[in-house]
Structures are given as structure tokens and as C-alpha cells.
């Protein structure tokens, strides 16, 4: 009889090889294909987002639920980001009837942050949304990530279904190469208060 096995997180790729930085040779964004990839998907989201920003003792505490019904909605697309075959990031892209693509729970696991992988995953996610016919990307940025998103063309603006949590900043970005023209919802200006100033 074989001993019981447990899921072990992927080891981080070697950052140095003979004194030179090692960059991933292949990057992919796709749906999880195995129980191990689903486990990594939920683990990264729970550790890097829920426990960091909504953990016990925070004003907006709530438990991470891997079985939340939104994960099974056919219009929502849970995706993993792989660097050289290892799951290093997550995003869920929710496609809305108004032509908006909502990026949810965007995260790069801690050991892989700071090497441009977040920018690469964001570009692939934008291409996914454009291919699906979206004309606008919407997301709720935590203050730590606000400058990252503004550097990538996002601007503060409220959108239908955006957060009511004052510790997050709703941002949007039009997709120039949307496949299907849509009638956009008129923009609702957002007052970026001390949160955006603190993120600057």
C-alpha cells in the first residue's frame, strides 16, 4: 500500500544560474487542468489576497470559499498563469453582457513577484478579454497595486458591480481592439480619496 500523499506547492524557479538572472522560457495563461493546478489556484488566491487584505483582524474580514458559486458560473473563467510549466499566478475573468470583462483576484505568488510576470499575465488576460469581445476591463485595485494598474493604462472610475469596500479602488481600461462593438455604459466618475493618495 502506498503512503498517503499531500499537495506540495511548486518550488520557485531558480533566479540565478552561474550569476545570471534566469527568465522563464515559456509563459501561459489557461484554465486549470488538474487537481494540483486547482489546488495552486486556490492556495495563491487565499494566501496572496484574502489572508493579506481580508484576513482575521482586518475591518473587511471574510473567509476564502473555494466552492463559491461564482467559480462555476459559465460566464466566469478561472485561469492559472504558468511560468515554465509551474503555476505562479491566478486571475478570474468574468465576461458581462454589457461587454465588460471584470478581472477578479489577480495575483502572482510572492516568490515570483518583481520580475515582470504580473505585466505579462495582465497582457495575456487583456488579450483573452479582447478575443472574447469585451470592450472594457474593470477591476478593484488594492492600494498596493494601484500604481501598477495605472502604469498599464487603467484609470480610476466606478463601474457597475464595483466594490463598496473603501480600501479598494475601482479602475477601468478600454480595450481598443475589441472584436464586437458594444454600446458602453456611461462612465460614472469616481472620487479617488486618501486611498489613491496613499497608493501614490
TrEMBL record:
Residues 27-176 form the N-acetyltransferase domain. PROSITE patterns: GNAT (PS51186). GO terms for molecular function: acyltransferase activity, transferring groups other than amino-acyl groups. InterPro entries: Acyl_CoA_acyltransferase, GNAT_dom. Residues 1-24 are annotated as: Disordered. Coiled coil: none annotated. This is N-acetyltransferase domain-containing protein. It comes from Rhodopila globiformis. The lineage of its organism: Bacteria, Pseudomonadati, Pseudomonadota, Alphaproteobacteria, Acetobacterales.
Amino acid at each position: 500500500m502506498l503512503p498517503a500523499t499531500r499537495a506540495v506547492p511548486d518550488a520557485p524557479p531558480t533566479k540565478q544560474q552561474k550569476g545570471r538572472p534566469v527568465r522563464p522560457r515559456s509563459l501561459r495563461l489557461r484554465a486549470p487542468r488538474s487537481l494540483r493546478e486547482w489546488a495552486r489556484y486556490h492556495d495563491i488566491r487565499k494566501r496572496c489576497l484574502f489572508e493579506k487584505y481580508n484576513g482575521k483582524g482586518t475591518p473587511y474580514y471574510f473567509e476564502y470559499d473555494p466552492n463559491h458559486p461564482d467559480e462555476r458560473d459559465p460566464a466566469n473563467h478561472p485561469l492559472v498563469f504558468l511560468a515554465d510549466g509551474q503555476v505562479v499566478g491566478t486571475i478570474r475573468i468574468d465576461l458581462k453582457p454589457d461587454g465588460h470583462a471584470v478581472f477578479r483576484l489577480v495575483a502572482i505568488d510572492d516568490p515570483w513577484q518583481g520580475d515582470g510576470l504580473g505585466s505579462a499575465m495582465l497582457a495575456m488576460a487583456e488579450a483573452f478579454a479582447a478575443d472574447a469581445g469585451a470592450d472594457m476591463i474593470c477591476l478593484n485595485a488594492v492600494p498596493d497595486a494601484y500604481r501598477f494598474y495605472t502604469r498599464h493604462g487603467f484609470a480610476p472610475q466606478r463601474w457597475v458591480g464595483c466594490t463598496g469596500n473603501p480600501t479598494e479602488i475601482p479602475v477601468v481600461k478600454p480595450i481598443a481592439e475589441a472584436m464586437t462593438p458594444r454600446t458602453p455604459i456611461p462612465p460614472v466618475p469616481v472620487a479617488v480619496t486618501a486611498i489613491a493618495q496613499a497608493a501614490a
